[in-house]
């Protein structure tokens, strides 16, 4: 007959380890806790099943989002907020200064203008979609760092950066190399870069290549045409 | 202060925050750019509208701007900023839930999935996560999407470690109930 005290201790240990499994899966436990989990799991089929399930959930949740947000527009709105002059408030303030009949006319005008802007935007979106579809039919469905054609006439350099580089470091590096991002990163992590000044592309490339965070940097066909290119 | 630090991310975050505390807007913008992608990816998992994501991020950095001088060296700058974003998101998500998300949650039928492919697993997770109470989901996402430790989540959420464990436990239980085929429970 088994010792009930031992059973109770084993049950307590089982509960404690079960609660640590998520952090065992995301690899943030310290050495002592990790060893504790591994010791228990080696003799507990229920926790082994639990671990297998948790790994699947972890993989599903941790999968990187395909959507990339560019921060510039958001940062501009933060600047407005910090300056205390949000765009919407400014419009309301202008309206408040007008007499009532002019205010009504103003809002009617604003409404009409909004509808016109929305209609124009829908038209532009439709045209853009049509152009994209046409482009997709004409161009290859993939893009690599070595593909011949440039994605933009301004593109002079394609580069891949270390995933550890911060946006601030990236911006600082690009400022130094006198380059700006015109698109990217692609699924392969490729950025398309355009020249910001008359600095020769060869010098921009040299600056990029000597930086530890740059995995790949190459000039495009347009780079040869760019003034100062070798 | 004209020049911005170029040290390791942790060191530069701290130096930037010191500069922010002294009223340096450039330092705030540098911190914003350093954290925007990480926060946007995290927050977009809760709210598909980028306007909401942007609002939460910008509200977070308004708090960073006003409270940088109150930052204590006991925690990491990243944990502190994510903690502010967590609380801002929590408020925003509760507001959204009151307005619209309840209807969305009710739209999910009381059914279970048996995912055999990656796409089915993705669908199941998306529906399962949407059914979790906000605090439980945020805890799970902080651990699995952001990769935070138990102790870091306790700091971010301003809760005892035991509460974090309990939230994670209940989140996992609920996900399992939603998917008996995967979890092995009924």
Q: Could you explain the architecture of this structure?
A:
The complex is a heterodimer of chains A (230) and B (186). Helix content of chain A is 60%, strand content 10%. Chain A is built from nine helices and four strands, in the order ααααααβαββαβα. Chain A has a four-stranded antiparallel beta sheet. In chain A, α1 crosses α2 (31-42) and α1 (4-25) runs parallel beside α3. Chain A has helices at 4-25, 31-42, 45-62, 72-83, 87-96, 100-138, 167-176, 201-209, 221-225, and strands at 155-161, 179-183, 190-195, 214-219. With 230 residues, chain A is of the alpha+beta class. In chain A, a hairpin with a 6-residue loop joins β2 (179-183) and β3. Chain B has two domains: 1-97, Rna Polymerase Sigma Factor, Chain: A; 111-186, Orthogonal Bundle (Arc Repressor Mutant, subunit A), CATH 1.10.10.10. In chain B, 73% of the residues lie in helices and 0% in strands. In chain B, α4 (77-107) crosses α7 (150-157), α6 packs across α8 (161-178) and α7 packs across α8. The termini of chain B are far apart. Classes of the chains: A alpha+beta (230), B mainly alpha (186). At the A-B interface, α1, α3, α4 and α7 of A face α2, α3, α5, α6 and α8 of B.
Structural features:
heterodimer, A: 230 residues, alpha+beta, Alpha-Beta Plaits, 9 helices, B: mainly alpha, Rna Polymerase Sigma Factor, Chain: A, Arc Repressor Mutant, subunit A, 2 domains, 0% strand, globular
What is the gist of this entry?
The complex is a heterodimer of chains A (230) and B (186). Chain A is α+β, with helices and mostly antiparallel strands. Chain A is 60% helix and 10% strand.
Element pattern of chain B in H and E: HHHHHHHHH
Total of helices of chain A: 9
The CATH superfamily name of the largest domain in chain B is RNA polymerase sigma factor, region 2, helix turn helix motif
The N- to C-terminal Cα distance of chain B equals 61 Å
What is the share of helical residues of chain A? 55-70%
Range of strand content of chain B:
under 5%
Adjacency order of strands in the biggest sheet of chain A: 2-3-1-4
The biggest beta sheet of chain B is recorded as:
none
Oligomeric composition of the shown chains: heterodimer
Task: Briefly note the structural class of the backbone of chain B.
Answer: mainly alpha
Determine the N-to-C terminus distance of chain A: 86 Å
Q: How many E-type strands of chain A?
A: 4
Number of strands of chain B: 0
CATH class of the largest domain in chain A: Alpha Beta
Radius of gyration of chain A from CA coordinates: 29 Å
The Cα radius of gyration of chain B reads: 19 Å
Rough outline of chain A? elongated
């Amino acid at each position: 007959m088994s010792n009930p005290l031992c059973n109770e201790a084993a049950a307590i240990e089982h509960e404690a380890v079960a609660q640590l499994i998520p952090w065992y899966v995301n690899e943030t436990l310290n050495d002592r806790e990790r060893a504790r989990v591994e010791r228990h799991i080696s003799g507990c089929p229920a926790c082994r099943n639990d671990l297998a399930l948790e790994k699947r959930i972890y993989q599903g949740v941790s999968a990187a989002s395909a959507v990339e947000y560019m921060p510039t527009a958001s940062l501009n709105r933060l600047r407005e907020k910090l300056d205390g002059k949000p765009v919407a408030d400014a419009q309301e303030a202008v309206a408040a200064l007008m007499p009532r009949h002019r205010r009504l006319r103003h809002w009617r005008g604003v409404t009409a203008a909004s509808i016109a802007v929305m209609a124009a935007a829908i038209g532009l979106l439709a045209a853009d979609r049509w152009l994209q579809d046409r482009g997709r039919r004409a161009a290859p469905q993939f893009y690599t760092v070595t593909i011949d054609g440039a994605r933009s006439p301004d593109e002079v350099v394609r580069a891949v950066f270390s995933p550890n580089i911060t946006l601030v470091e990236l911006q600082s590096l690009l400022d130094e190399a006198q380059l700006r991002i015109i698109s990217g990163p692609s699924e392969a992590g490729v950025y398309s870069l355009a020249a910001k000044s008359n600095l020769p592309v060869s010098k921009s490339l040299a600056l990029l290549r000597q930086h530890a965070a740059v995995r790949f940097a190459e000039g495009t066909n347009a780079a040869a045409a760019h003034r100062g290119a070798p | 202060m004209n020049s911005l630090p170029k040290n390791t991310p942790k060191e530069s975050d701290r130096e930037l925050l010191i500069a922010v505390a002294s009223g340096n807007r450039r330092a705030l913008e540098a911190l914003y750019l350093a954290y925007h992608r990480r926060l946007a990816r995290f927050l977009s998992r809760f709210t598909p509208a980028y306007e909401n994501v942007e609002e939460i991020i910008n509200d977070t950095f308004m708090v960073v701007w006003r409270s940088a001088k109150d930052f204590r060296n006991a925690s990491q700058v990243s944990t502190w900023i994510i903690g502010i974003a967590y609380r801002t998101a929590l408020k925003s998500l509760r507001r959204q839930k009151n307005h619209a998300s309840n209807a969305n949650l009710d739209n999910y039928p009381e059914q279970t999935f048996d995912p055999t492919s990656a796409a089915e697993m993705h669908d199941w997770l998306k529906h399962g996560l949407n059914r979790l109470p906000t605090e439980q989901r945020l805890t799970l996402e902080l651990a699995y999407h952001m990769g935070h430790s138990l102790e870091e989540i306790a700091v971010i959420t301003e809760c005892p470690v035991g509460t974090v464990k309990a939230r994670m436990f209940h989140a996992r239980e609920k996900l399992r109930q939603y998917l008996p085929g995967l979890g092995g429970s009924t």
